[in-house]
Structure formats: structure tokens, C-alpha cells
Design a protein that fits this description.
- The protein has helices at residues 42-54, 71-74, 138-146, 150-157, 171-181, 185-294, 305-382, 391-461, 465-489, 492-553, 555-562, 568-629, 638-675, 691-731, 733-814, 824-881, 883-966, 968-1045, 1049-1092, 1094-1097, 1099-1153, 1202-1220, 1238-1254, 1270-1276, 1303-1311, and strands at residues 3-10, 23-26, 31-36, 78-88, 94-105, 110-114, 118-123, 127-132, 1161-1167, 1182-1189, 1192-1195, 1226-1230, 1262-1267, 1284-1290, 1296-1302.
- By secondary structure, it is α+β, with helices and mostly antiparallel strands.
- Strand 12 (1226-1230), helix 23 (1238-1254) and strand 13 (1262-1267) form a beta-alpha-beta unit.
- Helix 10 crosses helix 16 (824-881) and helix 21 (1099-1153) packs across helix 22 (1202-1220).
Length: 1312
């Protein structure tokens, strides 16, 4: 068995990190006692044992951060902790394991790293063998060396104090721990694996069920499609027959219609001529009416076309002149605008500079005023006269003065405070002396009174000691008789020898059984290996055939895609490369398509927007055209019309003036001639040959004077008409120019729309090319997808073949070659016989062991009772002898109590005035400090005010000097002057520009008026042409109607209409039937195409395969559930069998330890719910510790006291250690007396002593007890096998120390 010998600690918890702080703990057999006060480091020993054996740091240490000695306590940045354990393994080899940790203090936390772990094995000849954690699993090596598993070390042997009550936790946690202890975790994992596999199979089954329903619906759909196809074919045949019949009925109608058409040919020419003439007439009328609406002034027929052409040319000349003026004015206006922009920029730039200079000037004035205010403030606060030039020096002198005052003030106040502190310290020292005397007196008084009370209790107990002593003697004799009979009943030594002998035989049988199992395994392995090789060869052949079949099926596709069929191992990588290339191509084309579509959409939106804008412009053009057409006709130019109108108006006005002037001239001629004796010509003064000539001239002049009013009236009408025309032309000038601009914009927009339409068309052509490329790529992608499953299958088969061939080769290499010997059946028979003998021997050994245990327990109980009665008897007899001494001692102590009370009262009287004086002085000290701080603050406030003044003065001086040096005042005056000059220049420029713009508007208006006049002239010419066309077309229509009335056209027309109606009805029905027939053919083709689809074509086969797979998986799921139930039942049976053994030990130890009468015994119940529910039902766990009284079970969890909880957990651990730690007889108990009363502590000590005594013959058994209870240690030390105990304490530095002490000293200390 394994055992531990020595533990070395350094740099963990409260154990120091220095070499001198290294401590050793020595472990003895059968009992090791460790004593120490709370917080001295006892539990650290258990933690180190657990850490060094399992490698796990204690719980709650954050991965070991608080396990290593704190670097702050060691005043180091890095602390290294080390734990070493010297032990003997199961094989008796001496080994040393060393584990190291290093803690480094970071900024906010401590980082811990694990150093190297080594296991050293000592062998003969001073040769050691080392194993490091870098090359081996040291934790696994430790578990093998100690002969126990990690759960046993964690939960039983080295259980931490915080986790010691784990048996009373909730059932699930308790079961998990028992699973680990029973080493049944692998079986639980197997259960979980079965559950997971079953869950996956159930998911597959659900998926197959869904597939089955899907395939079933496809199968039903296929059947319905076939029925519908037969019905459609029948309807198609019937419809085709009806169509043939209708076409035959059309033949006579067509023949009659042809005859009518021949007869109608003679009328068709006249009819067409009438229709053509009517159409032309309507068009001419419509154009004429629209033109009449647009013409603002209709000319009489007296105005000839030549006159209109002359007017047009005159207007065009005027318009050209005005356009030249417009261009010139626009250039001048643009020059003025550029000049204004330049001036505005200069003004803005100058304004920014001016603003900055004004701000600087304002800041300078503000700084000067602030400096003046600062000077006045300093004179007022400091109480001294200061000049501006010496301001800074005066502040410096005042600052030095205040600094000296602060230094003197600190020196004086510090001296006064030290004197006051000396007085207070002296008073505190006197008070402490008196309080210490009072405290010692009170302690002596309490101890003396306690001793008096103890003496009184002992004396009261001794009053009935005689009768009690006789009762104890009788009871002791009775127990001795029972003990003698029990020892004579069974020979324990012989029984123990027999048990050992049987165990030795069992060991031999186990070894023989092991050899037979190995031999049987070798034979079975050979046979199984050969069978496996044969199975693998068959599997290889089947997979190769399957792979070849798939490759042949896809050979042509592989050639098309890859140009050559790749090797099977490279096929998947080549396929993936081609697939990625194709996916990239498709993605790139789709991205380009998306970009093109986005661009096309943008272009179309742009074009649509332009069309909307053009529509708005065209609407505006129509509105303007309507306004302009009221004045201008056709394509008349406004400027030329205005020019012509103005010329004509001027000519008429001039003619009117001449006519008016001629009237007065002719009258003057008459007056002059009437005054002459011999009339002469009034113009040339030529004489007449006869008087009759003069009279004739007079008559002519009078007739001309009489004609002048009539002519003047006609001229005035013409002048008014021309003035109105000229004003209308001027009025529409803006609309005319706006119309021209809108027309130009419409033309530009139309050009842009055409350009965009061309671009969209080109882009769509490119998109169609990309669409074709994309279709090819998609087609290739579909081909790749169609072969993806086969490629994956080929790759899977290839990888499976590689693995199977490797397994086959390995099996062929490892196939055992055995010599001829016994056969498989012979070895199986021998192994079965040996197993039967071994079971029988184990049963017999267990029965004898139970008898030995029960008899040993009975004897131990009787011996314990006898020893207890003997001790009580001796104790009573000793106390009777000491009664007189007790009485005398009691009287002395009562006198001592009176003396101590008087001393305490005297100390209290002396303390009262001393406390009052101390309180007074401390109050004076507080007031002194407050006054000192107040005066010091006044100095500080004044000093800081000076510093602020000095800083403000420096800033103001610097700012003022910088402004004066920069000469910004002159710059401000220059900027103001520039601003005035720029504003004047800008005003003059704007006035000139306004004048030119006014001239431009006048010229533009004149141009608009000319356009209106030109258009009116063109419209009048067009109107005359349209009227002439109307008269010609009306005459032509009348001529053809007269010819048509002389024929029989009405009868032919009626007959033609009747035949056309009949033919239309027949054709309509034929078309309806033909359309229906086409729809039937399309529907039949669609159904046939759907039936050719693999989805419907293979529906019945796929449905059958899905049903088979679903039922197969369901059978597998049911079998897995049976496996789960069987394994779960076996695990539970194993748990119950093991728990039965554990409960028997727990029952015995409880009865031997517990001294209460409320619990007969305790045990662990394993109610694990319904196992037969299988993997579908959720398991419930009810592992619980119960207490039994009068055969009634109650849960201890929540019902037992704290002491019962500790005791039950301790007993369960002892039972588990005895059951599962056969190769490691070690158990450590940390503070086992927690929450136990004195009687149960004594009982526990007695039980542990008996265990240690009983196991004393087993040198490998070790019980380690750690406690702070000296009485408990004293009782345990009565075991004859104990010589030493170890004491843990802290030294002056607070570092834990361990000292090995003799048990005799502990007994002397307890007696004292």
C-alpha cells in the first residue's frame, strides 16, 4: 500500500518564500496529529497534500492566485511557491514529487504560472529516475503510484474543509461525485453517446419521414398528371374534328364573297377617289380654322402677296440691326458684372481685415483698462502706493514678504504644538498604566471566581459519590463478564489468519484468471483478425466497383469540364478549383450585370426626367406660341415685322402730314391768284396764255382741296391700324424671345434624349452579350452541381479505401502467430472454472470477514465500556481524596477576590481625573490646530492673490506691447479709407450696368414686336393657299359623287356585308377552337414535360426507398433505446451493490461513534427513478443521506443539526476510504470536531483511536487529524502507537512554522 512520509512547504499561503521559512511535516503510522490555533496555517497542509497529489489548486483561489504567498506581504514583485512530498508507492518504491508555482504582482492583479513538476524515483545504488511534466503526465503517474483515482483523493482522502459536507448536498451533485468515485464516468459517457447517436438517428428518421411524405405527394401528383394527360388527349381529338367541320363550311361562303368582290371592282375606284378627296378637304379645313384662330390681323384681298413679301424683308432688316445692338449691350453688361465681382471680392477682403483690426483695437483698449483696474485693486488690497512702471517689482517684494511671514508662522506654531503633544502623551501613558492594572485585576478576578465555581461544582458532585461509586463497580463487573464470554466465543486470531490465507489464494486465482483471459484474448484476437481482414478485402472490392461505376457514368462530363479525367485522389481538388473558378465567373458577370442594369436604370431615369422637362418646355412653348401667333403668322420674324411696321407707320404719318400741308398750300395759291389782276402760276410765276387757263387751274385747286378731307380720313385709319399693329408687335416681344429660348432648349433636350437612347440601346446590346455569357456559365455551374454529389461520393470512397487498406495492412502486420497448443474452447472452459472458484471463495471470505468485523466491534465496544467505567471510578475516588484541599483553596480564593476588587476600585478613582485632564488637553489641541489652519489659510489666500495679480499683469503687458509694436492703428485708418473708395467705385459701376440693361430690354422688346409682325404676314399667305385648296377639293368630290349615283352600288354593298358577317362568325369560332386547341397542345406538352422531370418520373421508386430507410432507422432507434436501458440498469445495479458495502461500514461506525439516542444509524439511499423509461424520459436523481430511528427513514439534509452533519459526512468519508482506497490507507481529517458537542467529540476520539489501534499492525495505514482542540488531541494521544504530534503556529513576522512535539509535553500541559 502507498503511504506518505514527509511534506515540505515553502511560499504558499502563510508559509514564507525564503529558504529559512521552509517547513517540513512528518507523517506517522497509524496516526498523525497536527495542532494549531485558527488562522495559523493548518488547513494549508491539507491543501498542499491535495495540490501535490492531484495538481489542482484549492477552490476559490482564482487558479492559485491566493494560494501562493502574497508578493505584497513579501515586499517582492515575484514569489515562488514550492510543495514537495516524500512518499512510497503501491509497489513500495520511495518517490519524491515536487510542484512549483510562481506569482507575479501586476498593476491590478496577480498572475500565476505553474513551473515544472518532477517525480523522482529512488532506487538502489544512489541512482534516481526523474520524470518531468514536460515529457509525461505527472498527474496520471501520481494516481498510479498512490493506487487511487483522482475523485478518491479529492472527495475522500484529502477533502477540503469547505467541501467536507458534500454527502449532504442535493441529489444530482451527490450522484455525480459517487459516479466519479465509483469510476463509472466512462459508462455514463457511453450512455450519453448512445443518447446522442439515438437522437441523431431520430432526427434522420424525422427527415426520412418528411422525405417519405414528400415523395408520396410526388407519387400522387404523378398519378393525377397521367390521368389529366389522358383526358386532355381525348379533348384535343374532339376539338380537331370540330375545327375541320367549320373549315369545310367556309368554302361556299368564300366562293360567293369572291363573286361579290369581282362585281364590286367597278365601284371601288370611284369610292376610293371620293374618300381621298374628303380626307384632303377635312385636313385643309382643319388647318384653315386653326390658322384663322392664330392670325391676329387678317388682310383684305386688296393687299397683294407682293406687298406682304416687301413688308417681310423690311422687318428682317430691322431685326438684324437690333440683334447686333443686343450682342454689343450684352458684352458691355458682362464687363460691368466682372468688374462688380472684382470690387465685391476686394470689399469682402478689406472688410475681413477691417474687422480683425477693429477687434484688435478693442482688445487693446480693454487690456489697458484692465491693467489700470489691476493697479488700483493692488493699491487697495496691499495698502501701498504703486506706480505703473514699478508695479511688477512691488508685487515681487510683497510676495517675498508674505513668504517670510509664512515661514516664521510655521516655526512658532510647530514648537507650540510639540509642547502640547508632550503633555498629552504623558497623560495617555499614565492612563494606559492604570487601565492595564485594572484589566489585570479584572482578569484575575474572573479567573479566581471561575475556579471557586469549579470547586463548588466538584464539591457538590462529591456529595453523592459513594452510591455512584458502588453502582459503577457493579456495572464494571457485568461488562467484564460479557467481554470474557465474547472473547471465548470466537477465536479472532485464527479467524483472521484464515481470512488472510483465503485472500492469498484469491490473489493466486486472480492471477491465474488474468493469464487465462490474456491467452483467451490472444486466441480470439487471431481469429477475429483474420475475419476482419477478409471483411476488409470484400469491402475494398465493393467500394472500388462502386467508384468505377460512378466514374464511368460521369466520364464524358469529366472530359468536357477538365479536358482529361483526373486521378481519383485529385478529382475533388480539381473539381473544387473548377467550381470556384466558375462561381467567380458567374459572380463577376452578375456584378457587371447589376452595374449595367443600375447604369441603364439611371440613364432611363435621366431620360425620363429629361422627357418630363421637355414636356414642360413644350407646354410652355405651346402657351407662348398661342400668345405670339395672335400677332405673328407662321415663321414671321418679330424684329423684321417690327421694322416693317415702323417704316410703314412713318411713311403714312409723313403722307398724312403732306396731305394736311397741301390743303393750306392750295388755299394760299387760290388766295394769291384771286388777288392778282393778271393771274399767273403761283409756283413759277409764269403767266397764262388765256384767262380760261387760270380759271381751269383754280377749279383744279378747289377740287383738290375738296378731295383732301376724304383722303385724310383714309390715311388716319391706316395710321391708327399701323400704330395698333406696331404696339401689338412690341407687346409680344418678351414672349417671342422666351419662345425662341424655349424652342432652343427643347431642341437641345431632344438631342440629349436621342443620345441617351442610343447609349441605352448599346448598353442593352452589351447586356444581351453578357446574358449569353452568364447563361453559359450558369449552364456549366448546373453541370458542376449535378456531378457534385458523385464527385463527393468518389472522394469519400477513395478516402474510405485508403483508410480500409491501411487498416488491412496494419492487421496483417499485427496478426499474432501462435504456436500449436490448446484450443479456444479448452481455454474458455478453464477460465470459466477458475472464475467460479474465485466467486465462491470471495463469498466465503466476505462471510468470515463480516463475522470478524461484527465480533471485533462487539469486543471493542465492551472494552471501551470497561475502560470508561474504570476511568470514572478512578476519577471519583481521586476527587474524594481532594475534598479537604478544595475547601481550604476555596476560602483563600474568596479572600483574594475581596483584595482584587479593592485594587480595581482604587484604580478607577485614580483614572477619573486623569481622563478629564486628557480630554481637556485634546480639546485644546484641536482648537489650536483649527486656529493654526485658519491663520495659515489667510497667508495662503494673500499669497495666491499676489500670484494671480502678477500673472495677469504679465499677460496684459505682453498683449499691450505686441499691439503697439504691430502699428495696427495706422492699418485701421487705411482699411477704412479703402472701404470708402471701393464702395464709390462699385456704386458707379452698378449705375452704368443698370443703364445698359434698360437699353437691352428696349431693344429686346423691339425685336419681339418685329417677330410678331413677321409671323402675322406668313400666316396670311398660308391662309390664302388653304382657301384655294378647299375650293378645288369640293369641286372634285361633287364630280365623283355624280358618277357614283348613276350605278347599282347599294345592292352589292348589302350582299357583301352579309357574306362578310357570316364569314367573320365562322372564322371567329374557328379561331376560338384553334386557340383552345393550341392551349390544349401546350398544356399536354407541359404535362409530358413535368412527367419527364426526375421528380415525378422517379417518384414511386424514391417513395419505396424512403419507406425502407424510415423503417430501418426506426428499428435502429428502438435497438439503441434497449441498449441504453440495459447499460443504465447495469450501472445502477453496480451503484447499489457498492453502496450496500459502504452502508454496512457507515452503520457500524455510526453506532460506535454517535452518543445520542435520536438516531439509530445512517445510510445513503440510491433512489434513481425509473430506469425502464429509456433515453426519451428525463432521469430524476435522488441520492440522499437518511437517518433511521425505529426503522423510520428521514432525510438528514435540512433536518439534522450542524454537529450531526459534520459527523455523518466524516463517517461517510471514512467508509468510502475503507472501501475504495485499498491500495492507499491514507485519510486526512481537517477540523473534524466542528459543531460537535463534547460528548460526541469524546466518542469520535474514541472511535478514531480504535481505528488507529486496530490498524496499527498495518504499517501502511495513516490517519491524519488536524484540529485546534487540545482536549481532542489529548484524547487521541492516549493511543499507545503515538509518540509525537506537530504544532503549527506563527512567528513574530506572521509566518507559519511547524514544530515536532513529544506527546508527553502535551499531556503535561493539559494536566497543568
Amino acid at each position: 500500500m502507498a503511504r506518505i512520509e514527509k511534506l515540505q512547504l515553502q511560499g504558499v499561503r502563510s508559509f514564507g518564500p525564503l529558504e529559512t521559512d521552509r517547513q517540513n511535516v512528518e507523517f506517522f503510522s497509524p496516526l498523525t496529529l497536527i495542532l494549531g490555533q485558527n488562522g495559523c496555517g493548518k488547513t494549508t497542509i491539507i491543501e498542499c497534500l491535495k495540490y501535490v497529489t492531484t495538481g489542482d489548486p484549492p477552490p476559490g483561489t482564482k487558479g492559485g492566485q491566493s494560494f501562493v504567498h502574497d508578493p505584497k506581504m513579501a515586499k517582492e514583485s515575484t514569489v515562488r511557491g514550492q510543495v514537495k512530498l516524500l512518499f512510497r508507492s503501491v509497489g513500495g518504491q520511495q518517490k519524491i514529487i515536487s510542484r512549483s508555482l510562481e506569482a507575479t504582482q501586476k498593476l491590478k492583479n496577480i498572475s500565476v504560472k505553474t513551473m515544472d513538476t518532477t517525480i523522482t524515483t529512488r532506487s538502489g545504488g544512489n541512482r534516481n529516475q526523474n520524470i518531468s511534466s514536460k515529457c509525461a503526465d505527472t498527474n496520471a503517474e501520481m494516481f498510479m503510484a498512490l493506487g487511487v483515482t483522482k475523485p478518491i483523493l479529492n472527495y475522500v482522502i484529502f477533502c477540503h474543509q469547505e467541501d467536507s459536507n458534500w454527502p449532504l448536498e442535493e441529489g444530482k451533485k451527490v450522484k455525480d461525485k459517487f459516479d466519479e468515485i465509483f469510476n463509472s464516468a466512462k459508462y455514463k459517457n457511453c450512455l450519453n453517446n448512445i443518447k446522442e447517436v439515438r437522437k441523431q438517428e431520430m432526427d434522420d428518421m424525422k427527415m426520412q419521414g418528411a422525405n417519405m411524405s414528400h415523395y408520396k405527394s410526388d407519387k400522387e401528383m404523378c398519378r393525377e398528371k397521367k390521368l389529366e394527360l389522358r383526358r386532355k388527349l381525348k379533348e384535343q381529338k374532339s376539338t380537331e374534328t370540330e375545327v375541320e367541320e367549320l373549315r369545310e363550311s367556309l368554302l361556299p361562303i368564300n366562293q360567293q364573297l369572291e363573286e361579290i368582290m369581282e362585281e364590286e371592282k367597278g365601284y371601288s375606284y370611284l369610292q376610293s377617289k371620293i374618300t381621298e378627296a374628303n380626307t384632303k378637304l377635312e385636313c385643309s379645313k382643319r388647318e384653315r380654322r386653326e390658322l384663322e384662330k392664330q392670325i391676329s390681323e387678317l388682310f383684305d384681298e386688296s393687299v397683294t402677296e407682293t406687298e406682304i413679301d416687301r413688308r417681310m424683308k423690311k422687318l428682317e432688316r430691322s431685326e438684324d440691326e437690333n440683334k447686333g445692338k443686343v450682342d454689343e449691350l450684352k458684352n458691355q453688361i458682362e464687363a460691368y458684372k466682372q468688374k462688380e465681382k472684382s470690387l465685391e471680392f476686394k470689399i469682402e477682403k478689406n472688410a475681413a481685415l477691417l474687422g480683425q483690426l477693429i477687434a484688435d483695437q478693442s482688445k487693446h483698449n480693454k487690456d489697458v483698462n484692465e491693467r489700470k483696474e489691476l493697479l488700483e485693486k493692488a493699491e487697495q488690497e496691499l495698502g501701498i502706493a504703486i506706480d505703473l512702471d514699478s508695479f511688477s517689482d512691488a508685487l515681487k517684494r510683497e510676495e517675498d514678504k508674505i513668504s517670510n511671514q509664512i515661514k516664521r508662522f510655521k516655526a512658532v506654531k510647530t514648537e507650540e504644538e510639540e509642547k502640547l503633544n508632550d503633555v498629552i502623551d504623558k497623560l495617555k501613558q499614565e492612563r494606559a498604566t492604570l487601565e492595564e492594572k485594572k484589566k489585570r485585576g479584572q482578569t484575575d478576578l474572573t479567573e479566581t471566581k471561575a475556579q471557586i465555581a469549579k470547586i463548588r461544582r466538584d464539591m457538590s458532585e462529591l456529595e453523592g459519590a459513594g452510591s455512584m461509586l458502588q453502582k459503577l463497580k457493579d456495572e464494571w463487573e457485568s461488562k467484564n463478564e460479557e467481554l470474557t464470554k465474547a472473547k471465548e466465543k470466537v477465536n479472532l486470531a485464527a479467524l483472521q489468519d484464515n481470512i488472510k490465507s483465503q485472500k492469498n489464494k484469491m490473489v493466486d486465482l486472480e492471477k491465474r484468471e488474468e493469464r487465462l483471459k490474456e491467452e483467451l484474448g490472444t486466441l480470439e484476437e487471431k481469429q477475429n483478425t483474420l475475419q476482419q481482414i477478409e471483411y476488409l478485402n470484400n469491402d475494398i472490392k465493393a467500394k472500388e466497383d462502386k467508384r468505377k461505376k460512378i466514374a464511368n457514368k460521369r466520364n464524358s462530363v469529366f472530359l468536357d469540364l477538365f479536358q482529361a479525367v483526373p486521378e481519383y485522389k485529385r478529382l475533388k481538388s480539381v473539381f473544387k478549383g473548377e467550381q470556384e473558378k466558375n462561381d467567380k465567373l458567374v459572380k463577376d458577370i452578375e456584378n457587371e450585370k447589376q452595374k449595367d442594369e443600375t447604369l441603364i436604370t439611371l440613364k432611363i431615369e435621366q431620360m425620363s426626367q429629361m422627357k418630363k422637362e421637355r414636356a414642360k418646355r413644350m407646354k410652355k412653348e405651346r402657351d407662348l406660341q398661342t400668345k405670339v401667333s395672335d400677332v405673328l403668322v407662321g415663321d414671321e420674324d418679330l424684329e423684321s415685322e417690327l421694322s416693317n411696321a415702323k417704316d410703314k407707320l412713318d411713311a403714312l404719318r409723313k403722307e398724312l402730314q403732306l396731305k394736311e400741308a397741301g390743303k393750306f398750300t392750295y388755299k394760299e395759291f387760290l388766295n394769291r391768284m384771286s388777288k392778282m389782276k393778271e393771274p399767273v402760276c403761283p409756283t413759277c410765276n409764269r403767266g397764262f396764255h388765256a384767262r380760261s387757263e387760270a380759271e381751269e387751274l383754280k377749279k383744279d385747286l378747289e377740287s383738290m382741296i375738296a378731295e383732301i378731307p376724304r383722303k385724310l380720313q383714309g390715311l388716319e385709319k391706316k395710321v391708327n391700324t399701323e400704330e395698333k399693329r406696331y404696339q401689338q408687335l412690341q407687346g409680344i416681344a418678351p414672349e417671342y424671345h422666351a419662345l425662341k429660348q424655349v424652342t432652343e432648349e427643347i431642341r437641345e433636350m431632344t438631342d440629349k434624349v436621342s443620345s441617351i437612347e442610343k447609349e441605352v440601346k448599346q448598353m442593352k446590346q452589351k447586356q444581351d452579350e453578357k446574358e449569353e455569357e452568364w447563361s453559359n456559365a450558369l449552364e456549366e455551374s448546373e453541370v458542376l452541381k449535378s456531378i457534385a454529389e458523385d464527385v463527393q461520393m468518389i472522394d469519400n470512397i477513395t478516402r474510405d479505401l485508403t483508410g480500409i487498406e491501411e487498416r488491412r495492412d496494419d492487421l496483417q502486420l499485427t496478426c499474432p502467430v501462435l504456436e500449436d497448443g490448446r484450443g479456444l474452447e479448452v481455454v474458455r472452459r478453464e477460465e470459466k472454472e477458475v472464475s467460479t472458484q474465485l466467486r465462491q471463495m470471495r463469498r466465503a471470505c466476505d462471510e468470515e470477514q463480516d463475522l470478524f468485523n461484527s465480533q471485533s466491534k462487539l469486543i471493542n465496544e465492551l472494552e471501551a465500556s470497561c475502560n470508561k467505567l474504570t476511568n470514572k471510578k478512578l476519577e471519583i475516588e481521586g476527587k474524594q481524596q481532594q475534598r479537604a484541599n478544595m475547601l481550604e483553596k476555596k476560602q483563600d480564593m474568596e479572600k483574594q477576590v475581596v483584595t482584587i476588587q479593592k485594587e480595581i476600585e482604587a484604580n478607577l478613582e485614580d483614572l477619573k481625573p486623569l481622563k478629564e485632564m486628557l480630554e481637556t488637553k485634546e480639546a485644546e489641541k484641536i482648537e489650536f490646530k483649527r486656529q493654526k489652519e485658519k491663520e495659515f489659510d489667510s497667508f495662503i489666500v494673500r499669497e495666491r492673490a499676489l500670484e494671480r495679480m502678477k500673472g495677469d499683469l504679465d499677460k496684459l503687458d505682453l498683449s499691450i506691447s505686441q499691439f503697439e509694436e504691430s502699428n495696427k492703428s495706422k492699418g485701421l485708418e487705411d482699411a477704412i479709407k479703402k472701404k470708402s473708395d471701393f464702395n464709390k467705385e462699385l456704386t458707379a459701376s452698378r449705375a452704368k450696368k443698370a443703364s445698359e440693361e434698360e437699353n437691352l430690354n428696349k431693344v429686346t422688346l423691339e425685336i419681339g414686336n418685329l417677330d410678331t409682325i413677321k409671323r402675322n404676314l406668313r400666316d396670311n399667305l398660308q391662309l390664302r393657299r388653304l382657301r384655294e385648296e378647299e375650293r378645288g377639293q369640293e369641286a372634285e368630290i361633287q364630280k365623283y359623287k355624280t358618277k357614283l349615283d348613276n350605278t347599282d352600288f347599294a345592292r352589292v354593298e348589302r350582299k357583301k356585308k352579309d357574306l362578310a358577317r357570316r364569314m367573320h362568325d365562322a372564322n371567329a369560332e374557328i379561331n376560338s377552337k384553334s386557340g383552345k386547341l393550341s392551349e390544349m397542345k401546350r398544356s399536354i406538352a407541359e404535362i409530358e414535360r413535368e412527367l419527364r422531370n426526375p421528380k415525378l418520373k422517379n417518384a414511386a421508386r424514391l417513395y419505396f426507398e424512403a419507406v425502407v430507410k424510415h423503417r430501418t432507422i426506426k428499428m435502429a432507434v428502438d435497438d439503441l433505446n434497449k441498449f441504453y436501458v440495459a447499460l443504465d440498469f447495469a450501472i445502477m445495479r453496480f451503484h447499489k451493490d457498492k453502496m450496500k458495502v459502504v452502508n454496512s461500514i457507515i452503520r457500524e461506525m455510526w453506532r460506535a461513534t454517535y452518543r445520542g439516542n435520536d438516531i439509530d444509524y445512517i445510510e445513503i439511499k440510491t433512489d434513481d427513478g425509473e430506469v425502464l423509461g429509456g433515453a426519451d424520459k428525463r432521469r430524476t436523481f435522488n441520492y440522499r443521506v437518511v437517518m433511521v430511528k425505529n426503522d423510520v427513514e428521514m432525510d438528514m439534509r435540512g433536518r439534522c443539526s450542524a454537529g450531526q452533519k459534520v459527523l455523518s459526512s466524516l463517517i461517510i468519508r471514512l467508509a468510502l476510504a475503507e472501501t475504495f482506497a485499498e491500495n492507499c490507507g491514507i485519510i486526512a481529517l481537517d477540523e473534524p470536531t466542528t459543531n460537535l458537542d463534547r460528548e460526541n467529540i469524546e466518542s469520535l476520539a474514541y472511535a478514531l483511536t480504535n481505528i488507529a489501534t486496530r490498524q496499527s499492525e498495518n504499517r501502511e495505514f495513516q490517519l491524519v487529524v488536524i484540529t485546534h482542540d487540545e482536549e481532542f488531541i489529548d484524547q487521541l494521544s492516549k493511543c499507545d502507537k503515538i509518540q509525537y504530534y506537530q504544532k503549527v503556529s506563527r512567528n513574530a513576522r506572521g509566518i507559519s512554522e511547524i514544530r515536532k512535539m513529544n506527546v508527553d509535553k502535551l499531556e503535561q500541559a493539559s494536566q497543568y
